[in-house]
Amino acid sequence: MTPQIFKTRITDLFGIRHPLICGGLMWLADARYVGAVVNAGGMGFITPRSFPSFEAFRDQLKKCRDITAGKPFGVNLYVAARPENNVNLARYVDILIEEGVRFVETAGYSPKDHLPKLKAAGIKVIHKCTTLRHAESAEKSGVDAVTILGQEAGGHPGMQMIGAIVQGALVPRRLSIPVVLGGGMATGRQLVAALALGAEGMLMGSRMTVADEIWAHPAYKERVVAADPAATRVIMTVFGDNSRVLDNRTARAVSALERQGVKDFEPYRPLVRGAFAREAYETGDVERGALSLGQSCGLADAILPVEAIFDEIMADAAAARARLGSLAAS
User: Fold this and answer.
1) 149: burial class by Cβ within 10 Å (0-12, 13-18, 19+)?
2) Which of 103, 112, 164, 287 is the 20 to 30 A CA-CA neighbour of 200?
3) What is the spatial distance between Cα 104 and Cα 107, in angstroms, rounded to a whole number?
4) Are residues 56 and 108 in the same domain?
5) C-alpha distances in Å from residue 267, one per residue of 3, 213, 232, 259, 264
6) Same domain, 165 and 257
7) Are 276 and 313 in the same domain?
8) Using one digit for the tens of pLDDT, what is the confidence trace for 166-221?
């Protein structure tokens, strides 16, 4: 395992060796994967909505604690726009507090309604957002850190579609809390760039979908390995909810509806149901389902254990840092 070569406010906040944050992956971020991330020196977040019941979620927390031999790990809480989709959030919060979880990644809408209870339990919260305005709002609400996403990110990169290189230069200088940069991040040289821009670490999602510890079907991982950065497509723009996904048959069907100007959600529903994405991961039929994927898929070139991926990233970071030193004028 690569020794620590960077010490930042994010490594201090999470008590981790490397400033590498692996965000929640719907359906995929289970105990085995998150435990591997923590054991390799980063921080990961279990996604409770990936499991069929509250007790199944609790079991994952216990399993992860066993895998990490007690080292702390995180839970991802997605705050949806529709209140009816948030009915389970309070129970998730209760369970993770009962199980001694120390870190929470929030995403989507503001987590302010849940912060008092999380903070009272001593839990550190990092909020994922896509604009400077939302990052500033999250800081005012009391979160401990923020992740700012560039438009390259898989899943929901926001509607402004600002690139990570601009977000990284803009947001850290406007906030006093630590900032993590995400969106197309996958390599050590990008980590060095993020740190140079003022961020305290980098967030990875799509890059990690080819990890051995991710339970998805080998055919899915092989599709990601074969992909280039142009293998994604942004859909659901017509609803003001950009989603970057694998450019597959389903995504093209959604785009066709959007080009026709269809604004009724019902024709889209059978294409974008979350259950179809899970089935794609289970069966390897990657043409079915809206599968969140960012442009960093073009940098995920091998199926490897999490620790090996981290070692590659940190070796690349050390080389990039050395190259910068070699460019100094005498």
Assistant:
1) buried
2) 112
3) 10
4) yes
5) 52, 35, 22, 13, 7
6) no
7) no
8) 999 999 999 999 999 999 999 999 999 999 999 999 999 999 999 999 999 999 99
